[in-house]
Amino acid sequence: MQEPAGGGPKRPPRPPHRAVRRRVQRPPRIPPPVVEAPPPPPAPEPIPGDVEDDDEEGDLDTEADLAVGGGGGNGSGTGPVEGPGHGSIKSKARGAWLTHTDWRCTRPGHEDLGRIVVRIRVQVLLDGKPGPIEIVRAGPEVFNRRAVECARDETYLPALDPDGRPILGAAEFGIEFLN
Q1: Structural domains in the chain (count)
Q2: pTM over 0.85, yes/no
Q3: Averaged over 46-62, what is the pLDDT?
Q4: Residue 107 forms part of a structural domain
Q5: pLDDT for position 148
């Protein structure tokens, strides 16, 4: 059995594709943890009379001989002393960050471009308001402008010094525009 030329019956055309808007649900970002500086390791205490001189003539050949104590000086000293450092006080330092991530930054049209991400760096002032905004990774110009506008309308967590006082800081993040 042979088929006639041209094949079987034609299929009806597919209906036009309808774009479906999907919103990606992401968990909120957690601000960076407080940075703790580890305490410095304790210095080993020298034991009196423990200096060895392996040089028979007393001349100094290497830096190790100089470090051992063959410098020819005299002096006196004491053991470990308490200093002006913070000691066991926990540091409250942290970087600047976003207060929330559920922005209402709308897409400036151009649905044909698909997903666009604009990465920006915002200088965060002492009161949590945005300062100068720099575009780190640009997208189309209208998306860059919209990302800067959105970033200016938000509030941020300011950076803190080790004592917990606000300082100037910067937060870098991406703003995603979905279809």
Answers
A1: 1
A2: no
A3: 54
A4: no
A5: 93
